[in-house]
């Protein structure tokens, strides 16, 4: 095995740069967020992230190693092409929709994590259930990023994959431990700058390589493979729409996104940052699209890679580092590859922080230890950052199905959490019974459709299903898999949304009309909300306009004050913003009236 010294030096320089920026950000902002809890400062950065850093870190919500590598891969693959490279437009529209409809209500109510509104309205047990798909998504995403990083580094410098993954994970975990969201945000600025400069320096050299044909010709004509522009077969139209909706709407209910929204200095800023990030997503995708097109336009027999194209070696997912390695001069190649590697490594930090934030606040503090001190919450966050980071690293090293797990978990985020987020923010009158029903509907309908990547067979065969012979990505053996042509993911999401509303109103009617005895309201979701006898279980603590929820515990003086601010931090907001938001709030304002 040959060690490429120049590549190793380039990667080391970029890694040290990321590490330095992460530690510097932690030191620079050590006194920021004074007047708020230290744990909240780690989670949402003291809510003072400005426009410049905020724009970069919001863009980095999705623009990282997986984004740029995946876009190049789909443009390069003969059976897909640009028509199927949906991530740039899908995630850009996701940020636009998030900015238009979700950023303002979430930020103006002063939440700390994405799960806060669920626990506020549906209770701590439902919040715990919704934490499961959210955690799976973040952990599997981090593992997929680290797995891709190991493969990328093996292309660049031929070093041991396991060593590179462990070192990368340790660096990301270390500066996240030290600085929380501030370190994540400032390293995002460096990350995007590295990607932009590194790729744009490389593109002109790759385009002018003698082995590369004119990409404007190969876009519409077959030269070395089918045109990279791609096409959508009529029979695949619903699959394309289903996948696009998954990216556009399923990209919203992630803690990595709301982490940035909730760290903005105002609700309006949160919206502006979302729109800026949407533009950034499209801009950052351009060099990846060009590199994918270059890969599809290359006569690999004229390169140092060899006569067999990457797609035939099952290396299409590494087309971006392969193009930089074999079609650019060494000094350009190593600069570009080092920048990309550092960017991939930096992408894992926000997911690890997101998972630990949700656990420390929504599971540990609000569900189990409501009287926990701020210092205790900080230590829980630090421990879980290390645990979740270690878990993602282990998965990246030992499991070959990490991408399949991430596909399935991201689908579950789409079909379970997105409709619940719609309901909790915009539908008046939903309750825990509807939320449980929606959870079950979404999970059963999605898992019932199967997951070929995980060899998970379907037990629900949707209209238009068919079978195909495919090579398994791990064993290399041909196998017959069921392909669902029906847009069952989006249908599962809609069924989950409707199920929430229907079962919520049904439960409300049955209990309030007396058709079911009040004593059977075991979730305390309908009757106990209006019952004076059991206010010790569900206590709404009013302080002017502030509403807090204390569940399943006796109210102590310190606790009532803490929980009054637990979900709604009005101290971070202008008064008029709060009043405006509460007027438009469908369900939270009704508690005021009651």
Automatic annotation (TrEMBL):
Chain segments carrying region Disordered: 572-594
Regions that span the bilayer: 6-27, 48-68, 88-106, 127-157, 163-182, 189-207, 237-257, 269-294, 331-356, 377-398, 404-426, 433-449
InterPro entries with a match to the protein in the record: Choline_transporter, Na/Glc_symporter_sf, Na/solute_symporter
Family matches, as Pfam families: SSF
Subcellular location: Presynaptic cell membrane
Catalyzed reaction equations: choline(out) + n Na(+)(out) = choline(in) + n Na(+)(in)
This protein's UniProt keywords: Glycoprotein, Ion transport, Membrane, Neurotransmitter biosynthesis, Sodium, Sodium transport, Symport, Transmembrane, Transmembrane helix, Transport
Extent of the signal sequence: none
Quaternary assembly: Homooligomerizes at cell surface. Interacts with SEC14L1; may regulate SLC5A7.
Family annotation (PANTHER family): HIGH AFFINITY CHOLINE TRANSPORTER 1, HIGH-AFFINITY CHOLINE TRANSPORTER 1
Function: High-affinity Na(+)-coupled choline transmembrane symporter. Functions as an electrogenic, voltage-dependent transporter with variable charge/choline stoichiometry. Choline uptake and choline-induced current is also Cl(-)-dependent where Cl(-) is likely a regulatory ion rather than cotransported ion. Plays a critical role in acetylcholine (ACh) synthesis by taking up the substrate choline from the synaptic cleft into the presynaptic nerve terminals after neurotransmitter release.
Protein name, UniProt field: High affinity choline transporter 1
Organism this protein belongs to: Echeneis naucrates (Live sharksucker)
Phylogenetic placement of the source organism: Eukaryota, Metazoa, Chordata, Craniata, Vertebrata
Gene: slc5a7a
